[in-house]
Predict the structure of Chaperone SurA.
Amino acid sequence: MATYLMNNMRLLQVLTSALLIALAPLAQAETQWLDSVAAIVDDDIILTSELDERIKSIKSNIARSGSQSPPEEQLRKEVLDLLVLENIQLQMANRYGLRIEDEELNAAVARIAASNNLTLEQFQQTVTERGGSYLAIREQISREMILQRVQMGNVNQRIQVTEQEIQNYLQSSEGKEVTSPEFHFSHILIPVSSDATDAERKQAENKANSLSAKLRKGSNIDNANDDISISDLGWRKGTALPALFQGVAAKMTDGDVSDPLQSASGFHIIKLLESRGVKQMVKQTRASHILLKPSAIRDEAQTLALAKELRQRALNGEDFGDLAKEFSEDIGSAQEGGDLGWTSPGQLVAEFQQAMDETAPGEIHPPAKSQYGWHVIKVIDRRSKDVTDDMRKQIARNALHERKYADELDIWLRKIRSEAFVDIKI
């Protein structure tokens, strides 16, 4: 145990604080410890103050949720066990050299603020007004992000999802429900009262036909007219749509406007704003490139000059693939003549994607800069591909992976806990 204490800087800090208190003026009635050790975990410690602070936070969350807090002794034991597990993982992160950069942390905090309908400034103000510390919140978020990455890095590699499992899932009732098409409709109702005369009903029908025709021509209908009710139905599975709409929805494509549909409440018009899972077509591009990276022997300007030279040589008739094999520093594609195969939007870095999208098949784009270096890009061809089946399989794979993840995470956490040195001090 002496080895653990000697190698532990945080423990030394606690001892130093205690020493400073002991050296305080004699007027002080008695020497008091600023803190104590709740547990030793491998090469680190958990302070009693950390434990108390976490218990306080959890109690506050329990109170806000209206739930019943467990007995004090049980809660204290469970929270300490949680801190021990977190500490083991954070030590693993330190060994991996895992860090959360400020830019990434800022983006994460901004997303949390936005999820609460707050700007970053409003979020900071809210935290302060509630007596909290914005810096402490950032530290907590960073901690959670690190823990998540350590878990994913160690658990994901333990999970295998086979093609047979995917097929079985897609054929199951759950799989069919999860992968069934979804629709996002806007809805207009021209109401008709139950005691309406034939003339009033006919007038409402004519109005519905007129609105449907205007919408098809691209007109916008506002909600100013008391005789019209406009609503957004949001994203819904086909089976969750009102029965009146289901048969029509299956035949519509994005942007379509339905004919008026009659019900007991009046005449309905629906417009399909978006859909997913029906038939997904993706525009793909096949391109080749030559990647040149600045280095100690070739600076930025020289690298750009070489990129321009190679582009000109290709334009003059030299084989682009041969040039890529000789000069490209992209190990993955150089031996394939720079061929990247068919790619979908979002697969490549933004600068490369933009340059590629600006280039017609058969043409070579001027050198484009990305985080990897300078690219000379030649677009070979473009196509539209139906990726509906691929997307359904990916949804199934994600669902199966998520199902296995919780079990594998629990097994992994038990494993690292059993392998760690833990000495509970309280």
Observations:
- The two ends are 16 Å apart (CA to CA).
- The chain has four domains: 2-155, 159-180+387-426, 182-276, 282-386.
- Confidence is low (pLDDT under 50) at residues 1-33.
